[in-house]
Amino acid sequence: xxxxxxxxxxxxxxxxxxxxxxxxxxxxxxxxxxxxxxxxxxxxxxxxxxxxxxxxxxxxxxxxxxxxxxxxxxxxxxxxxxxxxxxxxxxxxxxxxxxxxxxxxxxxxxxxxxxxxxxxxxxxxxxxxxxxxxxxxxxxxxxxxxxxxxxxxxxxxxxxxxxxxxxxxxxx
Length: 172
Known about the structure:
Layout: E1 7-12, H1 16-20, H2 24-38, E2 46-53, H3 55-66, E3 74-78, E4 90-98, H4 99-109, H5 113-128, H6 136-152, H7 160-165
Parallel strand pairs: 1-2, 2-4
Antiparallel strand pairs: 3-4
């Protein structure tokens, strides 16, 4: 049996990322790999593209693809085609993270930018794999998986306060 390694390509479009977080690219690669490993896809021959962007780029993408006229922390664009690229690896999709929104959120949540970026990449990669949070059940599943991956990095549960508000029967 041939083993493959998922490839994660990180493009820094906003230099503020590397000034504030010199290991941002490594953080992205490790976070994406951890999601694939949890899902049993660590040996999948696939590619993930991550763009570390500024708010303006994310705002433009958010408007173009979602009709929302503001920046958000992370956008995920799953590849809609199931076929591999040129007979090779399969592109799972793109994750784009906005520096300004993300750094502001990290400050408000009193978490490091590194930990928050890890969370946003984990969140985005789960979206690439088809997870969503459109209803409470889907959200509980996705959030539990995110929390599990992040715990392996020593990152505290970003949904702690939300989870505490749910009754035990609501958490899956």
